[in-house]
């Protein structure tokens, strides 16, 4: 599957900004046998005085930009062409929960994909007793790791209501769990916390999701969105798998990966600091266009 992706993020400042430094992570990543970045660019208006394109620890493309001159608006644009490969259906070779600690212990690597990075608490995901109890009630004896993750994904999808006004980007998993409402970031954070509480390595996936308009309706430009879902480790034989608790599906040809991390803080589209005061307004528009 081939896609053209266009992203525009606009920051409009109440008071002109006299300086700023940001890290931008919006360019899709190339992944062996899964996804290939054919071509891609990230541009900024105004043009930054300094810019450096690199990759972070987890291999996610990142662009560091520095502004010294005063500006009232910042526009970040990303254009990319990405090719996705269908993933084969496989039998469930993941171990059960009782045998899993030994399998994790056999992994000596600390490479970015090592399950050890995704077992404990992370900057935005502390341990939570309520979510842990929720996970233990779902995980039945004899279930495999893959079955447990699928069951938790299904349960979160049923128990939670998608509500874009209920939470903010800073809402904690505990708050979202109490509300049983939120957006894809909240669903993903709760599911990761639940899996880790059982000793299952789990991480955050940031990316794009192609949306399909209702029958008879035209596709609206800019109506697609950045999205988040969960990756979890199923053992040495199967490796990493991905589930989307917002939609209760496995990540497939409509899920385009921008980056992997422990939680949102590792893959936030834009982070940084400003020299200014007052408020600002943010607008985001995404187009995910299938070419075949």
From TrEMBL:
InterPro entries to which the protein is assigned, alphabetical: Bac_transglu_N, Papain-like_cys_pep_sf, Transglutaminase-like
Species whose genome carries this gene: Rhizobium herbae
Pfam family, one: Transglut_core
SMART domains xref list: TGc
Protein name per UniProt: Transglutaminase family protein
Domain Transglutaminase-like: 176-247
């Amino acid at each position: 599957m081939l896609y053209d992706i266009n992203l525009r993020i606009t920051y409009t400042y109440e008071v002109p900004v006299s300086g700023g430094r940001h890290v931008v992570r919006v360019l899709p990543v190339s992944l062996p046998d899964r996804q290939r970045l054919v071509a891609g660019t990230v541009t900024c208006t105004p043009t930054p005085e300094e810019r450096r394109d690199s990759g972070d620890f987890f291999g996610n493309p990142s662009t560091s930009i520095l502004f010294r001159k005063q500006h009232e608006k910042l526009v970040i644009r990303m254009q990319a062409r990405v090719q996705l490969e269908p993933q084969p259906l496989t039998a469930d070779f993941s171990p059960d929960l009782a045998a899993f600690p030994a399998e994790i212990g056999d992994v000596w690597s600390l490479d970015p994909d090592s399950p050890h990075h995704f077992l404990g608490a992370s900057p935005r995901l502390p341990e939570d007793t309520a979510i842990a109890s929720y996970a233990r009630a779902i995980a039945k004896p004899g279930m495999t790791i893959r079955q447990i993750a699928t069951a938790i994904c299904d349960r979160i999808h049923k128990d939670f209501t998608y509500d874009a006004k209920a939470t903010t980007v800073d809402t904690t998993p505990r708050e979202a769990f109490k509300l049983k409402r939120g957006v894809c970031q909240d669903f993903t954070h709760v599911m990761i916390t639940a899996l880790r509480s059982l000793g299952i390595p789990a991480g955050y996936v940031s990316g794009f999701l192609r949306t399909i308009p209702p029958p008879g309706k035209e596709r609206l430009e800019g109506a697609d969105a950045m999205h988040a879902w969960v990756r979890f480790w199923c053992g040495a034989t199967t490796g990493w798998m991905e589930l989307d608790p917002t939609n209760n599906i496995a990540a497939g040809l409509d899920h385009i990966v921008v980056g992997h991390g422990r939680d949102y803080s590792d893959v936030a589209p834009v982070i940084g600091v400003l020299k200014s005061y007052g408020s600002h307004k943010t607008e985001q528009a995404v187009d995910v266009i299938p070419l075949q």
